[in-house]
Amino acid sequence: MFDLFLHFLSNTGYFLADYRHYIMIVVGSTFLYLGTAKKYEPLLLVPIGFGILVGNIPFFKGFGIGIYESNSVLHYLYFGVRTGVYPSIVFLGLGAMTDFSSLLAQPKLMLLGAAAQMGIYFTLLGALFLGFLPKEAASIAIIGGADGPTSIFLTAKLAPHLIGPIAIAAYSYMALIPVIQPPIMLLLTSKKERLIKMPPSRQVSKKELLIFPVVGVLLCCFLAPTALPLLGMLFLGNFLKECGVVNRLANTAQSAIIDTATIFLGFTVGCSTQADVFLTPKSIGIFFLGAVAFSIATASGVIFGKIMNLFLKEKINPLLGAAGVSAVPGSAREVHLMGLKEDPSNFLLMHGMACNSSGVIGSAVCAGILWSFFI
Amino acid sequence: MAAVGATIVFLGLVVLSFVISQIHKVLRLWEEREKYLDRFKKKAPAVAEEEFDQPIYKERRLPTVDELANTYRPLVEKLDEPFSLSQLFEIAKKIGLPHPHLSIQRLRDADILVAQGDGTFIWNNLKGNIGFDHV
Asked: Which fold has domain B62-134?
């Protein structure tokens, strides 16, 4: 009887836990705190944070419980992450929610979205320099795109063993946009530049909005066919929204489908951060490089905005470059707030959204290109 | 690898931005295709029948103020008085009258369009009815 009790005790989480589990539980709790109390990206941080708690409850291995054990329920749910299914579904919903009219009204702002992708390539060099394998370096570099699903998608294809740390780093930095981006924007722009007002956007016709997803998918996916699972779904979702004849499908894509995928994506990514797999020196390197990637991406966009002003008759506000990263709508909101801080009548949100949506396209194209380099 | 990737992404998005900046122009061209086709059709026989021994200047003379009044009177009748010149300009432009800006200016100079002082205008029936009944 006593032996049975001892045997039971030896199988409990209290007995099996070591300091690493507690560290990860603190991390998970921090995510939950940031998501709920601070409202930093709650749709992502809450499922991920809870997933971290669940994934770091110690258990006796070999009984098909953990996410890395075949035939476990979590393992099946994780299938959507490993194969890139969830990111594609999230992109479908994202497309159905995105209004590209601000981008169509000012296509030149797309260049800021392109410039912000430079963070990816600088980080690629940095990761290679730090000794990561090329496929790992590419997966880490994509964090600079500030796009969680894209990061997960590419990592699932190139370096599946790094999905946990890369996803956590990507989502962490997306949640920390209000902390990371403003100092960079302030550092790189003068007050005069921050005060530049953007002209009101022209009215975009329904036909333009309808044609854009078709043109977009053809141009981008002919260039980088490997971006099809992401961009194909993104533009499909957008076409569903704009065509106006399948409102039921568009509504489902932008609500039930993306919500379901986000729950499973966030939760299983959180679960994948099992302490013994997650807490490694590589993870620290990934977090460091992720911060570098995100900062360079922000800086590249802002600097490119300043360069564009050298040639443009009608100046653009270089703050918009920071919205070129694809963290929708966090970075656009941050740019808008900074513009308002300088001049309460300077509204940059819609222009920021244009850069944001081009950043989504840009980072997905980047992911496709990086993947194709290793095929 | 990094340089190649960055260049491809940048060029790709530059091409995409250029293409989407042209979509509305292509659409406008498509929607007004009838107008352009008509213009093309009208021009084609004119070139074929062109007779070089005829003085061209006679065909290109400016219409007289009376002729302008006759042309613009029916347009004004569609508007409620007083009307703004921009309304008249829009209608004239819509139906394809040549040089609406210049024509309206001449009608103003001839006191056929009379300013009301608040940015609106009325048609002067005393001067603007010349020959109208005969058209």
From this structure: Arc Repressor Mutant, subunit A (1.10.10)
